[in-house]
Amino acid sequence: MSMFKNLQKTLKVHHFIALLGIVVLAYVIMQYSGRKGMTSDGFTDVPLNRPADIQMGGAHPAQPAEPAGQNEVYSSVTGINTTSYGLPPSCSKGNVVDPSELLPKDVNSQWAQLNPAGGADFNNVNLLKAGYHVGIDTIGSSLRNANLQVRSEPPNPTTKVSPWLNTTIEPDLMRTPLELGCGNQ
């Protein structure tokens, strides 16, 4: 009896609640594990012996399939005049368009009047100039990894390690330093 008294002194109410929680948690885990083991994934060859799986006596028995290529049963179709989809009933070629018929030949046609061919003056037409974009972000590494801070930083050092996998991002050497007393001002 003295051992029970000592146990009562050392164990408080929160110890009993924690012990009860551990027992309940162990019971829940055991129930969950037991249910997980009872379910079947359907990948095993378990013989079907339930009454719902056995075919009743009055129904037609199952027949094995014919070999491949011999077990097709086609339905009949009505209202189609041809056996090949997309072909006319006579199975002859339709009219083929000649490419020369697509372009206008008559100078007096409506197309020729709206779109005259040849003899046009392109001097005052606003076309792009060939050298317009030269020098404007045409370099491959032109600020692709731009430093957007107000204070300038030294560029990240790069070392060629092999003929392959070298960086193509070059440091921005045109950035002027903003610090007082540093660099050319």
From TrEMBL:
Transmembrane segments: 12-30
Protein name: Minor capsid protein P11 C-terminal conserved region domain-containing protein
Domain Minor capsid protein P11 C-terminal conserved region: 97-179
The entry's keywords: Membrane, Transmembrane, Transmembrane helix
Natural source organism: viral metagenome
